[in-house]
Give the backbone structure.
Amino acid sequence: MDLNSLYSEIITEHNLSNHNKHHIAGADIVEKGHNPSCGDEIELELKIKDGIIEDAGYTGVGCAISQASTSIMIDLLRGKPIEEAKQVIETFLGMIKREITDEDQLDILEEALALKNISNMPARVKCAVLAWHTLDEALKKKVS
Ligand SMILES: [Zn+2]
């Protein structure tokens, strides 16, 4: 299987699987994200304990890219310290903006690397980054 079919398989799988699509009981943070250019809407719910993202989930509607990107992000960041999560968010946004191209640096993105080619599709970039910007906002509020 070539890398591109592997990538599209990861996106399809996350889009079909609803394993991260649920409310989080006793969530500490609920943050809404909206991408008007496509109509994507998500609501992230996070449970933070001792500076660690203990659990996360989301609800919402939107295109396959926005939903898959949210689910991939949650899988990747669940259980991570906030500081590490911020690093991952920054790297992901850097990858999409093509500001970070170093493969060693991108390694921490794991499955989120599947979204790398979105940077070639300007119309879909906002769909891909929606969840990550939303989480970034949520974490800023939590820390400040
Ligand atoms: Zn979209």
Observations:
- The chain has five helices and three strands.
- The radius of gyration is 14 Å.
- Helices lie at 3-16, 64-77, 82-96, 103-106, 122-143.
